[in-house]
What does this fold into?
Amino acid sequence: MRTLFNFLIQYSVVFLFLLLEIISFTLIVNNQGYQKSVFLSSSNRVAAEMYEISNTVVEFFKLRAANENLSEENTAFKNQLIILQNKLNTLTKNTVRDTIHFRIPPEMEYQFISAKVINNSTNKLQNYITLNKGIVDGIKVDMGVISDEGVVGIIKTVSNRFSVVIPVLNPKILINCKFVRNNYIGTLVWDGNDYRFANLTDIARHVEFKLGDSLVTSGFTNTFPAGIPVGTIEDFNIKESDAYYKIKVKLAVNFRTLSHVKVIDYLNYKEQRYLEKASEN
It folds into this structure.
């Protein structure tokens, strides 16, 4: 208590000055019309700005929830669209019974599972992505992962409620892709440098392409269906003694802004893998 009194006595002049300032300001505002209007206008402006900031914060959190809902709805619509496209592309008519039959190619029988990115790295040599979906949601090892932009990676490990993805930004993963221009196939691999680019290998000297050409998945693996964007040709060169090009690819996906993805559930995966392993043995 004695310390408090000493403090008040020591700074009594300051407190008296502040009190007189407040009294003077109050008298000016209450007795002078112009000053009062200026004060009210300023206070209203400050209050409006505070409300705007408050609404912005609230809308930000609402927007996050809205994005998640939109991602779920987009995935559901995409699954329905795939079913309809497959049926339209494979529609045949039986002239004997006058009935319609659908013959969907087995490699086109797949669905999507939406997921949210809850952890992601882009500055390491071997990067990984963690998703908020796991076994209970139908996620399995070796499933392909994409975004609305293009190829993201492959499921590496799964628990009940989470899964870890090996993204394109990891030298452990090789993506089989092809040129849209001529269907020539190559392999995409990351060199560990820039998260925006990767390298395309196995493209022979005789292959014709140019800057800006698009690359998509080849469909020759059971991880990704054909036609999913991978990237575009950013740069390339070849020496006189080389048989293959050195090609730099700008990736379709911006991994720094990745927030929602879709996991590809290839419905005939087990059957195809079983047959291929049986053939190898």
